[in-house]
Predict the structure.
Amino acid sequence: MDLVRRVSAMAEIARQARVRGRRIGLVPTLGALHDGHLALVGAVRERTDLVVVSIFVNPTQFGPEEDFAAYPRNLARDTDLCIAAGVDCVFAPPADDLYPQGPPTWVEVEGPSARLEGASRPGHFRGVTTVVLKLLHVVRPHVAAFGQKDAQQAWIARRMIHDLLLDVEVVVTPTLRDTDGLALSSRNAYLSVTERVAACAIPRALDAAREARTSPEATAESVVAAARAVLGAEGTLRVDYVELVDAGSFERATSLDGERLLLVAVWSGRTRLLDNVTL
């Protein structure tokens, strides 16, 4: 496996791979890898000949009061996991290589980028789409993989790729969960034992919404209320949002007709956690 630290070196590897007719796959990450990331690697490996995992804690997607400085970084551990998973190349550039003169040019998907995560974290998705486009230009993948846990991020990345006419297949893999039901996330490492126990109300809330959906009298409001009730019963949690959206448009859904996503964002202690379920 190659560990590549420079944009120019990664671009040359990608150029040579394409000249040789090899299909390239990209898994963009912030590092702190877990089994959810490795599932993305597996999905990409099935579809491509050269698997690239980018590891870059992107400063432009963190707000001034967020955890950029504290975000877990362990490149040695991450590269070991990538080797074991059959990754061909880890691309881990320094910030001044991806942003050589700061970030004066932004890429932004209007509309859903301003809602939910975008409302709670202003500028977040502008940072995400900007760095993803940079990575796509450098790595030149045929396939890029994102996780369903960050459903809004995956939707926005897919929309950007579609709108900018990029020839990249987007693969979204199902959320993986720990034995207690909590969705795998790098930020789970922040949780104390007590906070983790409280956070397990999140998957229970999604289960309650799924159950509520089966009622003949179910409405969009009753499904959201069922999830909120479970979260509210866990008194230490702080709910940011619980919202039902149309899976195709990511607009707020007022009915249960068609495919729907119930999205939640919850604070357990000082850790903000995301999850969702398809209804």
Notes: The longest helix spans residues 124-139. The longest strand covers residues 237-246.
